[in-house]
Write a structure and sequence with these properties.
By secondary structure, this protein is of the alpha+beta class. The protein has two helices and 13 strands, in the order αβββββββββββββα. It has helices at residues 4-26, 207-225; strands at 34-37, 46-48, 58-59, 69-73, 83-87, 97-101, 107-118, 127-130, 137-139, 146-151, 155-167, 172-178, 189-198. The strands form two sheets. Strands 1, 3, 4, 5, 7, 10, 11 and 13 form an eight-stranded mixed sheet that branches. Strands 2-6-12-8-9 form a five-stranded antiparallel sheet, with no helix packed on it. A hairpin with a 6-residue loop joins strand 8 and strand 9 (137-139). The longest helix has 23 residues, at 4-26. The radius of gyration is 25 Å and the shape is globular.
């Protein structure tokens, strides 16, 4: 005999199981690394860290003693708009920068910095980066987490993981500085942009059966009440 309460309960259990399976399958996907080009000026995402200016850290020419960053056209096209930010640590002290991304979903993200090196030199062009504005770490093509993404006759493009950030308020900031002032003559820092990759929590193998067990228990309680 048809029992409406049993029919409703069966529909509830079927729907709940289907939802559990969908969540488990979708949570197993991994987000891709998103690249963000570093830009100055109005509407730009990169500023002088000390005062928030979008322009006063940019040099008009490729001078070696103006203590600024120069926007240089990269022969390899680099990663974004065919340019790169350059400074020469042995002759100048360019300001620390801050590149910010907004509109993110709150959560945990692996964070990367993109930089360039010459492929015709035995020296290591380096960059300092961090997730806070102090204690920046120096990275190079020899860093354990560095990955070469492309090369041409002049420059190599690299990506290095600098850590994991917890995003709140939808905002992620990365702090950038040139390599240490004691760099050998001719070495410089090429900064191009940042990358982020959302970390998706994957349910443990026991999570789904446990959830189904709770549903079964609820169904049994419902039957006893009927």
């Amino acid at each position: 005999m048809f029992h409406e309460k049993d029919h409703v309960m069966k529909k509830f259990i079927f729907t709940a199981v289907a939802m559990c399976l969908i969540i488990a399958m979708s949570a197993s996907a991994h987000a891709a690394i998103i690249y963000v080009d570093a830009n100055s000026g109005a509407g730009g995402n990169t500023v002088r860290d000390s005062n928030g200016s979008t322009t006063d850290w940019v040099g008009a020419t490729n001078a070696t003693n103006d203590n600024l960053w120069f926007n240089r056209t990269a022969s390899a096209g680099m990663f974004g708009e065919g340019d790169v930010w350059e400074t020469l640590p042995e002759g100048e002290n360019a300001p620390q920068l801050r590149t910010t991304v907004t509109g993110l979903i709150n959560g945990n993200y692996d964070v990367y910095v993109y930089f360039g090196t010459p492929n015709t030199s035995s020296t290591l062009w380096q960059i300092r980066a961090g997730l806070t504005n102090s204690g920046l770490v120096q990275y190079s093509s020899a860093s354990p987490d560095a990955t070469k993404l492309f090369d041409d006759t002049s420059f190599d493009g690299w990506r290095v993981k600098i850590g994991t950030a917890t995003v709140t308020g939808g905002t992620l900031s990365v702090f950038i500085a040139h390599m240490t002032d004691s760099a050998p003559t001719g070495e410089r820092t090429y900064y191009d942009g940042i990358g982020y990759e959302q970390i998706i929590t994957v349910p443990t193998p026991g999570a789904l059966p446990a959830g189904l067990g709770l549903l079964s228990f609820a169904a049994m309680r419902r039957k006893r009440r009927d």
